[in-house]
Amino acid sequence: MSYLLELQSPEEIDTIKVKSSIKPQVILKHSTRCSISSMALNRIDKAEIASLDADFYLLNIIRHRDISGKIEKDFRITHESPQLLIIKDGKCVYDESHSAIRLGEIESVLNELN
Fold this sequence. Notes:
Helix content is 39%, strand content 24%. The chain is α/β, with parallel strands linked by helices.
């Protein structure tokens, strides 16, 4: 999924917060061990997100539990997987999980923010 930038370190969350003042930042928390998470990941279509004015990130929570922990702490959200977050002006303004992750709703939220 090369159209999703893969998060590699907790420090990247600080960068995302700064970048979110310019445009929304979207984080998809994904478990490689979960079929529901795979289904949610497959719903994020490359062609459709390419037209949206946001940066999209993928977090492999199995490999990077430390980053997931920083997200929980910094944005004061409860960890779920799969989970999609939209960050704007340094705050989590949208948080959805499991089968409720839908590209149409993400697009609608991003259009309202831009």
